[in-house]
Amino acid sequence: MKFIKSFFVLSFVFLMMGKSVYGQGEAAVPFLLLAPDSRGGGMGESGTGLADNAAAIFWNPAGIAFLTGTEFSVTHSNWLPQFKLDLFYDYLTYRQYFEELNGSVTSSITYMNYGEFVRTGPDSPDPIGTFRSFDAALTIGYATKISVDWGLGFNFRIIHSNLSDKPTAEEQGSGVATTVSFDIGAMWRPSSLVIPFLDENIGNQLSIGMNLSNLGPKIFYIDQAQADPIPTNFRLGFAYRIFNDEYNSLTMTLDFSKLLVNKDTTGQSDQFYKALFTSWTSKPFKEEIRDIVTSAGLEYWYNIPGEFAFGLRSGIFYEDPSYGNRKFMTLGAGIRYDIYGFDFSYISTSVFKGGENHPLSDTLRFTLLVGWGATAESTVGLPRGL
User: Fold this and answer.
1) Mapped to the 3 state alphabet, what secondary structure does the chain carry?
2) Which is nearest to 35 in space by CA: 48, 21, 26, 18?
3) In whole angstroms, what is the distance from residue 342 CA to residue 38 CA?
4) Who's near 28: CB < 8 A, 6+ residues apart?
């Protein structure tokens, strides 16, 4: 099979995930937008304001500035199970605090497998071999506090897309492309914040984060003239710890995100540094607002200090019907014992009209993590003692 055909197959897969990003072909390598961890996945795929574990390298690298200790996690998901294809997603991440650097060094590996394809010749449908298609990304980052209440985080990423292993007949290009991108995030987590009319200090309960991710040049499989932008994305997130005592903790999250890609009717797209602005003005402001995706979640922990903790999560993800129409509910749970943890999340689309057979329905994520050396004050969502 020619790699161009493979590209269309993969584009169809992501078309099922949301028209605003994939159906109009606005951006290549959309796997970079997938929520990588089960914890954020269980809270409506939100986490920009929370960002208090190793997966913050995706949600908001600045959140890691408030963390100490070391953490390693791995996530696996059989993606889009309704297709019954060999699609799976793996995510590994690591962070470590270095006192001499006054911050943390982070890294992650993202791997999206699209399965095996049959190669045919240019003049015959008979198979002449097989090949596997995949996308992968390696990210490294650094996060530091610039004041008691403010953190900054930066990531650099190498992106490799392998849609085919070699060209066929007269085709140009090999079906393989590589590019780079970077992220910048900021987090405000006030240690003291008094609400005047309530005379209440909500310090260490609220955090607000912002993340600009996948800033970088276009990617091309054939030549520069046919290059596509990568999915530059803006996220604004909030997290609020409603209560936290010795045994119980409840946290609420809210995220808003928008794809910062601007592509005209002829297929020409702006460079990322220009699209940062034109993606907000190419349509009437009312339409641009409708293009913003909203996600929200709740996380409850029951904690026995020094023993274990058990968490429950739920959330909702909403995309305007005219800009993708992804709507689903998420559920999740987690457990922490000593330095070990396990999380899983589940996507349900059946709660919405017409969502019974949506490709995202019944998607599961599983995460294993190991973390040690962190102080209780370095987390917002987790209960004391973890």
Assistant:
1) CCHHHHHHHHHHHHHCCCHHHHHCCCCCCHHHHCCCCHHHHHCCCCCCCCCCCCCHHHHCHHHHHHCCCEEEEEEEEECCHHHCCCCEEEEEEEEEEEHHHCEEEEEEEEEEEEEEEEEECCCCCCEEEEEEEEEEEEEEEEEEECCCCEEEEEEEEEEEEECCCCCCCCCCCCCEEEEEEEEEEEEECCCCCEECCCCEECCCCEEEEEEEEEECCCECCCCHHHCECCCCEEEEEEEEEEEECCCEEEEEEEEEEEECCCECCCCCECCHHHHHHHCCCCCCHHHHHHCCEEEEEEEEEEEECCCEEEEEEEEEEECCHHHCCCEEEEEEEEEEECCEEEEEEEEECCCCCCCCCCCCCCCEEEEEEEEECCCHHHCCCCCCCC
2) 48
3) 9
4) 161, 177, 218, 219, 228, 229, 230, 231
Structure tokens at 212: 């600009």
pLDDT exceeds cutoff 50 at 6? no
The domains of the chain, with CATH numbers, are: 3-378 (2.40.160.40)
CA 51 vs CA 100, 110, 143, 185, 327: distances in Å: 23, 18, 12, 11, 23
Beta 194-195 vs 200-201: how paired, if at all? Answer: antiparallel
Q: Is the pTM of this model over 0.85?
A: yes
pLDDT in tens, 183-192: 999 999 998 8
Report the amino acid identity of residue 311.
G
Beta bridge partners of 18: none
In angstroms, rounded to a whole number, what is the distance separating the alpha carbons of residues 114 and 274?
Answer: 32
Reported for 122-130, long-range contacts at CB under 8 A and 24+ positions apart, including other chains, are: 122/2, 122/168, 122/169, 122/170
Q: What single-letter amino acid sits at 224?
A: Q
Tell which residue, 141, 147, 160, 281, has the closest CA to residue 211: 141
- pLDDT classification of 305: cutoffs 50, 70, 90: confident
Question: What are the tens digits of pLDDT across the range 106-155?
Answer: 999 999 998 877 776 666 666 676 778 899 999 999 999 999 999 999 99
Rounded to an integer, what distance in angstroms lies between the CA atom of residue 104 and that of residue 66? 9
